[in-house]
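pinging the channel bc i need a second pair of eyes. not urgent but kinda urgent?? the chain im working w is below, pasted from the shared doc
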Amino acid sequence: MLISKDTPVEEILKIENTNPYSHCKLSSGYVLDEEIKDIANFLGITEEELKREYLEKAERFGREIFRVKQEKKKLSTEEGEVELPHGKCVFYDERFGCLLGDKRPLFCKLPNHPLLSKDIIEWFDINFIIDPDDPKTLREWEQYVKMKEDVIPGGEIENIIPKEQLEKIRKKNIFSKTQKDVEELKEELNNLLKQNIAKTN
């Protein structure tokens, strides 16, 4: 199956899932803002309780997003205990699978397929993470595309944002805000210096 930027969600979810829940044992999924209310209602808690007890903030392509917390194990070493970077999803149960059932986030429903996993994750990122109005996510995606060179059809930056808008963003974001402030300050100081030299002469 050829996956592109415009492949419908229904088609993605029809792909054979060769190893369901395998990633749940080692990591956890991202939760979109629009999924938070449904999950909270399913658990019978408030959205704030869900965020506090079960979610944590993460960053993906420069965008802040929630992900489900993980039960991270600790490893004893000669220097002391070290927490492992990944662990089982807090909603995963060995006997029943995902305790959220059909309310689990879309990211967690994505098929785990040996030949298509990369394409499926790229499809998710393009459609749900990359924001055409956020220069930061666009810059990070553009770097990813340059590095990978074989992104799914429609995933090229020119297909996500109109070329004219992209050029404006590139021009405006040569410097980070801090760097830009420094450059403006330097220019201001240089002008003052020129004025003082002119007065002296």
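so The mean pLDDT is 86. and The longest strand covers residues 80-89. — does that match what u expected or am i reading it wrong
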